[in-house]
Design brief:
The chain has about 375 residues and is α/β, with parallel strands linked by helices. It folds into two domains: about 170 residues, FAD/NAD(P)-binding domain (3-Layer(bba) Sandwich); about 140 residues, D-Amino Acid Oxidase, Chain A, domain 2 (2-Layer Sandwich), CATH 3.30.9. The protein contains seven helices and 22 strands. A six-stranded mixed beta sheet has the order 10-3-2-14-22-21, sandwiched between helices. A hairpin with a 2-residue loop joins strand 21 and strand 22. Helix 1 runs parallel beside helix 4. The radius of gyration is 21 Å and the shape is elongated. The chain binds flavin-adenine dinucleotide.
């Protein structure tokens, strides 16, 4: 079997792998990114709301709070510079009961704890949408939407401009720890051949598969998956929105919201329920629940106004409500496992790549 020696391998061509690979490509001469699919970003990175989050929900000092806040600024700046389509449209978070109004107060207090001072209670502007029912509404002006596919293409271009190599249709099958680092067994679906990469630096950005890969390196079940599925439905009615509309958060999500895309189409979602399999089909059983959730703040909506869109699966961790950037050395090798990288992962990606770069700097130099 052919064996090649390179400096660094990134497993996973979603937004986290691309962002990290792009930053590391200025430090390594030989850096590869492998993606099992034939196109980049076909899993969680293209099954989400494409919202640039403000960072208001996450616990102070958590990695989510830190990376979301920093990532939001870096992302707006990057999109501006690279002329990638985006809109700082703002969002309303609304309450429909007194209990939910208390939740709005908690969100306001949390955002102040996290040093975000642009949230305001605003009940006048939401009246421009008479079809929305709300008791109180909070407005977040720094929330936005963006074209995440153009963003990923731009990261890939920069990575390849720095001589990074992207291998599509290449799947990591096995990882072995060696005295010099790691040997990675890869299956190239294009040639049907297998080959081995010898690497010193390994980045595991495999999304829904990242926990399994990390556990094979540690040879124990150090981390445990908790997959939370979310479904989207497209709105077929005639109302239009210029802002995003969010209800208050639920147990597993920040709420089944109404989002606009850059073409001003409206979609509702994502719902949130546990699953153990990676299956992107809609569940017939969930549709009525979904419809009822939307109806609580959009009372005139009819079931036939909703048409199934896509679904996505949040790669969260059992017992840990945060991102984990797990770095460890084995002999001369160093591995970075990016785990629990669920929402707000798009928003945080450029801050994540800076964090990985800085935490590896001691090993690189
Ligand atoms: C329903 C939903 C809504 C969301 N909404 C938002 C939002 O509005 N804003 C926001 O900021 N974030 C949002 N997120 C979060 C965001 O989408 C994710 O954090 C982000 O896309 C994760 O990117 P990733 O690169 O880590 O994972 P992925 O995009 O899943 O990429 C991992 C890649 O690794 C590849 N791979 C896996 N195993 C192997 C292997 N063995 N060999 C080679 N390749 C492999 C996969 O094919 C995949 O392409 C949302 C997530 C969900 C599920």
């Amino acid at each position: 079997m052919d064996k090649y020696k390179i400096d660094c391998l990134v497993i996973g061509g979603g937004i986290s792998g691309l962002a990290v690979a792009r930053n590391l490509s200025s430090h390594f001469q030989d850096i590869f990114l492998i993606e099992k699919n034939q196109y980049l970003g076909q899993e969680t990175s293209s099954r989400n709301s494409e919202v640039i989050h403000a960072g208001i929900y996450y616990k102070k000092n958590s990695l989510k709070a830190k990376l979301c806040l920093e990532g939001k600024e870096l992302l707006y700046e990057y999109l501006e510079r690279q002329k990638i389509d985006h809109k700082r449209c703002g969002k309303f978070i609304i309450s429909t009961t007194d209990e939910e109004t208390e939740e709005l107060e908690k969100i306001m207090n949390n955002s102040i704890d996290c040093e975000i001072y642009d949230l305001e209670f605003n009940n006048s502007q939401i009246k421009n949408y008479p079809f929305i029912y709300s008791k109180e509404s909070l407005f977040s002006p720094s929330t936005g939407i963006f074209d995440s596919h153009s963003f990923m293409s731009s990261l890939r271009r920069e990575f390849e401009h720095n001589e990074g190599k992207t291998l599509l249709g290449n799947e990591c099958l096995k990882i072995e720890i060696t005295p010099k680092g790691f040997e990675i067994l890869i299956h190239d679906q294009n040639t049907k051949e297998k080959f081995i990469l010898e690497v010193k630096f390994l980045i595991n950005a495999a999304g829904l598969a990242a926990v399994d890969i990390a556990n094979t390196i540690y040879e124990e079940k150090k981390f445990k998956n908790k997959f939370i599925k979310g479904e989207y439905f497209n709105y077929l009615g005639k109302e239009k929105l210029e802002h995003l509309i969010y209800p208050t958060p639920t147990k597993y999500s920040i709420g089944l919201h109404a989002t606009i895309d850059l073409g001003k189409g409206i979609r509702f979602g994502p719902s949130a329920y546990e699953t153990t399999t990676i299956d992107y089909n809609h569940s017939e059983k969930e549709k009525y629940k979904f419809y009822q959730s939307v109806k609580s703040y959009w009372p005139s909506i009819k079931e036939q106004d909703l048409s199934p869109g896509y679904t996505g699966i949040r790669p969260t961790l059992e017992g840990i409500d945060d991102f984990i950037v797990d770095i460890n050395s084995f002999n001369e090798g160093v591995v970075v496992n990016i785990l629990g990288y669920s929402s707000p992962g798009l928003t945080s990606s450029l801050a994540l790549s800076k964090l990985v770069e800085s935490r590896l700097s001691d090993y690189i130099n």
